[in-house]
Amino acid sequence: MDNGPRRPINKQRDTDVNLRVAALMGSNGQWDVNKLQLLFPENEVTRIFQMQIGDVADRDIWAYTPQGAYTVKSGYVLASKMKEAEAVRIMESAPGILELKRHIWTVPTIPKIRNFLWRAVSGALAVTERLNTRGLDLDTRCKVCKSAVETIEHVLFKCTMAQDAWSIVGLQPLPSQMHLSLLELLNMYLQKMSDETVPVLQRQAIPWILWTIWKNRNMLLYADTQESLIIQIQKAVEEANLWKELNTMQPTPTTVNGLNEETKKWDPPLPSYVKCNIHANWRNAKLHSGVSFIVRDQSGNVLHHARDANTFSPNRATAELRCLVWTLQSLKDLGYQDVVIGSHFREIVEAIKKPLEWPLFRMFLQKINTFCGMFRSVAFELETVSSNQIEREIAKSVLRDGRFQSYLALGGPAWLHQRILRDALLISS
Ligand SMILES: [Zn+2]
């Protein structure tokens, strides 16, 4: 959805910038479809067509309310958005920020912490100094040490709490470094990760330490219970080490009850296993979602495929989990014993791995767990969009073509024959 008014996208590269609306109207005063189709792609033509035109005088229209009239509320929302965009622009124009952001995606740590680092660099952590740039008038002093303005670099490096945390690991910033900016400090600490003069246990834990400092600050501010900083830092160092060990181990082939990393092409299951790729096509909470699965053997031959329409799900995760429950039930009924479930929906795979972290979905996760217990072995694999294409197409066809009847069939759907064949051929390549 567009947030505001914009030009339609043009079909041709060279466009007449002085073109007026009147030139797109026919002699009857209505839109001239042929002219529109000549200049704009189909979706834009549809949008333009929805605009009412007629024999009325020109006037200014406020584009940010459904009725086209100005309201104070919509004006305020627009003004705050512009202010926020301005702040982001200033942050983004700082020298070196792009390089640092690019570097963050390669930092050896878990995605959650990479995401946190990204937010720190983007000025998107909710410290009081940042909140005030959004028009909140808060006392900007750090609540922990009460001695300085609470900026992101203060929280992560300069606050007494942060200094304590860094000195527990033996990596505290020197007094001469205390004037450095957030970008300089982050750069310096991320560089330290590959500095071989620093003991490996310490330097590999740097992202985890930053995350711990941030979590601890939030705990001090908002939580009733507190955990000793020393223990938290020890845990962070252990976690970093464990993660490092797990990630430098040799990759194992498809494992039972394990999780595999993403792959580009469709990977076949081990002999005697079947692999079942699933997909739920969720668009919004008001529409049905299309669900599908396709079961293939180690050579890529389709054994079964099925499609169904589910009633409304409030969000994508629910739609995918319902799809998984339905799939497991069906696979059980079909008598499969050793299965690998492939989904490109990362959250599903995460939720199954750590059900305690997904309390909202515990009902589904419990059901899934019970079903899994009925098979000899079940493994879950994360697919990429490209390796999960066929079941995606089938699920999409439910909404796109209005195929609401459910069905289960032997073999694959004829209209996707070519793609199934291609996946099968890729196995040997
Ligand atoms: Zn402080």
From TrEMBL:
A molecular function GO annotation: nucleic acid binding
Q: Which residues form the Reverse transcriptase zinc-binding domain?
A: 70-166
- Chain segments annotated as transmembrane: none
Please state every residue range assigned to the domain named RNase H type-1.
278-396
Q: Which domain of life is it from?
A: Eukaryota
PANTHER family linked: BNAC02G40300D PROTEIN, REVERSE TRANSCRIPTASE-LIKE PROTEIN
Please give the name of this protein: Reverse transcriptase zinc-binding domain-containing protein
Species source reads Brassica carinata
